[in-house]
Each structure stands twice: as structure tokens, then as C-alpha cells.
Amino acid sequence: MLKIYKAAYGSNTLKGNLALKYSLLVSLFFLFAGKLKAQNPPRQEIDINQFIQTLFPVPSEDSNYEDLYESLFQLYANPLDLNTASSDELAATFILTNQQIQSLLAHRVKLGPFISLYELQSVPGFDLATIYRLLPFVTVEPRQMSLKQSLKNPSQHFLMLRSGRLLEQQKGFSEIDTTSRSTSRYKGNPLYGYIRYRNARTGVYSFGLTIEKDAGEKWWEWKPGRQIFGPDFSSFHAQIMNRRKLKNLIIGDFQMQAGQGMVMAAGFSLGKGSEVIRTTYRSTLGLRPYTSVLEANFFRGIAATYAISKQVEVTSFYSRTRRDASIDENSDENMVSSLLISGYHRTPAEREKHNTISEQNIGLHGLYKIPSQKGQIGITLLNTNYGSYLLKKDVPYNLFEFRGKHNLTTGIHGDYRWQNFHFFGEGARSGNGGKGGIAGLIAGLGKTFDFTMLLRHYDKNFHTFYGNSVSEATRPINESGTYWGLRYSPNRRWQFSTYYDRFNFPWLKYQINAPSGGYDIYLHVLWKPNKRFNAYALFHEKHKPHNLPEANSAISPVAESVRRSALINIEYEVPLRFSVRTRLQGGDFGYKKNTSSRGFTILQDITWKFSRIEFSGRFAFFATDDYDSRQYVYEKDMLYAFSLPAYYDRGTRHYLMARYNLSKHMKVWLRWSQTRYSRLETISSALNEIKGNKRSELKMQVMYQF
pTM to 2 decimals? Predict the structure, then answer.
């Protein structure tokens, strides 16, 4: 056994340490005799929607939670091996504190590789609540398998099919009305289609194929020149890992996460939420397969990470893909006025913009790891070339936006852990000379206080196409800010969190006709008397500049908008049996010295589990003055599906979902949802318009695990 571990992990574990491990496991066996049936506890299916809701109870429409969902699900689908996971990979779970990460690494160095996940209970600073939250994202591999052995023993091998449709007819699927000016209609049928295949072994290899068709899009179209191969969107990857010095090799679609995300962020944008401390730091996760159906912000080509030594790794990649874009019809040179990310190709106008221009990327990342495992330094380079000239609309707020075909972005990042302090930062420069920088620290101030501070500055002419570092806006450009976060945990039952973020925009922005600034404040209280019950309350207020609507002047004056949100959430769960959740949420939006728009929602969720079937449901009542005071609330959805609807106007929202295990290998999901409005005669607008006051959706999913 000792020789196996040395071969697999290069450990210097002594026989005395190994004996100590076995004595610990024997003790844990008697302590948990009723639960300990295998070397590792059974791995339960996690609700990623619920996990994200814990991090971000009040969603922001500026953040891309679908990409965050996919990133977290990739972590769940490919759990970290505790015997090889780095501090950055452990930090990416957003579960462990800096002290807990350092404690786990020290335990591994002192006693050698983990033998079982039950051994986590012997790591100083780990309590059962933390371990339960961590278990879905980690594993213990007894030894490294060869590629041939791994192909015979995949940790993940499934085929998934999903389809659904709105039950009411949208205008885009109706016959053309000869009395109307609108003659455009959707070219495809109203069915949504999704196919996903994955064959992988954690830490060894991964093969995957994803196909998607949105409602209204054609089932089949063949345009290889535009990278359209049948279905509207298709994505493939093949990956091998940890083959001696070749740490990672991906062919197909992939993303790259390095440093604090100023140059390459893998679409992983967290924003600000109830986890006021850990989300300020971005982990360097390196190359990751792209498996999402978001049709932008990924690379397509070949990428590799090579370990020159134990401390030095080099990643390089080449990507050539095509992007949706709007062509300026008034230009003789087919200039691009904007790059599109919606992914919809339903009407002739949308299909004309599908994969219109080519994009080529060459990337390089070098990483030096400090031998003590206390930090690292990295350099990043991304060279982007477009097949057409990019020139945004000639308006004042676009004065410093990117124009041209080529952009070279370079950056340097680093972090260092000293005792209970974690320092980190990154600086970058774009091809036109624009600069950006971010720096912060996370500190554990004793056993009860955690503190973080984050400073950021992005020039008004700083351009990064794949960067997504912390910012108030949707992109890191034309912004300076200071973020402070504090968490107080007097005991295991109570937790108090708060943050304050001050931001400034040195130049004009879209719908902001002057240099401006604002601030964001957040308060969160969590009470968890036991592992079955928890309740939390929060208050969030944001002051942000915005053009005053319906102004009589030629140039709209800038006013300070104020958005407030508050909620109370109560949950009770009996593991493997049932869970209930009650939530009261409300808020308002308006401009200073003007009347505010107010809204609220109250909802009840319930999930009931049996041996082979699980039922979930919700009933919600909502009332808002208008769309400005809309309420965003997460909903439980099928595996690999994400749901975050906006509740507005007045009405009810409910859904029912069932998951049935037909056999050991096959699962089926069926979900019906409906929103009823009491004051609307038509829902939505343009081709999405529905005549009537209700909107219903039916979805079905089948998953076969080989």
C-alpha cells in the first residue's frame, strides 16, 4: 500500500503516519458504524440551483448565472482528488476558508495521501457542516489509473436528451397577418432540443458532445464554412490529463481561467453575493472543456499544458472559430458594429448574423508555483484577430471602445498566503495601451472574523475580450472601485455578513450621459441551529447612475437610481425524505426624489423523495407595480438545466417536477410550469408575444448512464 501511494503521489509518508491513519479510520468506523458502509460515503446528487442560491440569494441581471451554473456543475461532475488538488482548486469550491485549505494541505504533507473521505473529520478546523457541503465536489482516488484502465472504468458515462415547448402559441409561430407590417416569422418549430453525451474519468480523460436547438430554430442546416454542422449549435471536446509531464491536452471547444480573470476568465463571473469573502478571489484553474450551450466566449481548436518541472507549467493554445455579428450596412467594407451573444437564429435576420465573422486566438500562460505551496506567479498573453474590422456606433459613450481587427492583451498575476492572510492581484495591458489592475487580500482575524478588501481600476480604453474580472459593469472597462467584505461567525449557529462596494465610471457609459459613480451595500444574517433547519434574512441596496427616463431635454440628465431588496428565507430538510422552503422577497426601484416602483413575492417550495421517485413543486404569488420592480427567484430544474425567471406585474407562478429512476441506468424527468397574470391581456412583445394571460411550459428529459 505504501509503495502504491508513493508511485501515485510522490509521497514521503512514513509507516508510523500510515498506522496513525488506520487507527483514525478504525475509530471513525466505531463512531459512525451505522453509516460507514464503504471506503467513501455514497455520493448524492446535488441541486446546483440551490447551491448558487446560497451564494447569491438576490440575483443580478448583469451576471451570467448560466455560465456560473455550468462551471460549478463541471466541478461536481469532475470531483477533485483530495490527494492532488491544489489550493486554487480547493478555493474554487467556495466552501473552504483559507485557514481550512492550508490545514488540509498541511495534513496531507504531514500524514500523506488521504485513504478515505471519512478522514476529513480528522483535519483540524473541519466541522461536519463543512464536510457535508464539500463531499459532492471531492473524491479520493486510491491510485492513478492508466488511460486504458480508465476507459474501461469511467467515473461519468451518460447520454442525455431533453425537449420542451411553450404550450401557448407565440406570434413567431403564427400565420402572417396581411394587415400587419410584421412579415417575419420563426423558421423552425416551437420545440426545444438538447442532446449531451459525456464519457470521462476524473483526472484522466474526457470526451463530450453537446447539441442544442432553440425553439424557433431549424433542426438542420449545413454550412461548414460558417461552422454550422447540422444542428444550430454543436460542441465537441476530447481531453486527456496527467500523462507524465503532459498535464492537459484538449482538442475541440475549451475555456481558460488564469489569475483574477483580467485576460482569460473562462466565463466564470461571480459578482457579489452572500459569500462576501471567498468570491473576491479567482482561482487559476487552467484549461477546462467547454460543455455549455451558451454560443459565445469559448475557444475552438487545440490547447495543452506541459509541466517543465514541479514548479513551472506552460499552457499554450490555438483557436479559430466564428462569431455572430451585426454588419454595418452603411459601410462599404462590411464593418462589424457589434458582436452578438444571444445565440438565437430563428428569423432570417438572425440567421444572417449567425457565425458571420472569423475569430482567431493564440494564447500563452506560464505559471511558477512557489515550492512551499504558499503562492504562485503567472504571465498571460492573448492575441486576438478578427476577419472584419470592428467599429461600434459613433456615439459619445463609444469613443474609447475597441476599433480594429487585432488586439494583444498581456497580463501578470500572483498570489501569496502568509499565516492567515492571502494576498492576490493581477495587472494587464491591451494592445492600444489601456491598462487595468486588481489587487486584494483575504484575512482570517481569529476564529470568528473574516475580512476581505479588493481594489480595482480599468482604463476607459482597456480592452479584453475574454476577461471577466470583478466589476460593477458587465465588462472590466471604464471603472474604478473599492470593495470591503466582513463576516462574523460567533458560533456554528450564527453568521453575519456584509459588504460595501464603491465604484466610479470616469467616462460615459450606455444610458449614462456623464462621468458618474455609485455604491452598493449588503447585509446578510444566517441562523442554522442544526443540520436540518436554516433561516436567513438579507437587505441589499444599490445606488447607481442612470439617464433620467422621459426627460424633456435633448440630452437626458443623469440621476441616481436606487434599488432595494430584502428577503426572509426559511428551510427545513429531512435528508433523503423531504424538504420545504418558504420565502418572502420584496424590493423597490426608483430615482431620488421620484416615486418608486415596488414589488414582492411570497412562495412555498416542497420536495418529497421516495425510493425511486422524487416530486418537487412551487406555488408563488407576486405583485409588482411594473417591470422595474421585478423579482428574480431561482427554481429547481432538471439536471444540467437552469431556471431563473423574472416575476413581474401581478399573478401566480407554479411548477411541478418529477424525477423517476426507471432502472439503475435510466432516469426520467418531467416538468410543467405556468405563470398566470391578472392584469395582462398579452405577454411579452414582438415575435415572442402571447395572446392571453398565461404562459405554460412542458419539458421532459431522459438520461441513460452506461
Answer: 0.89
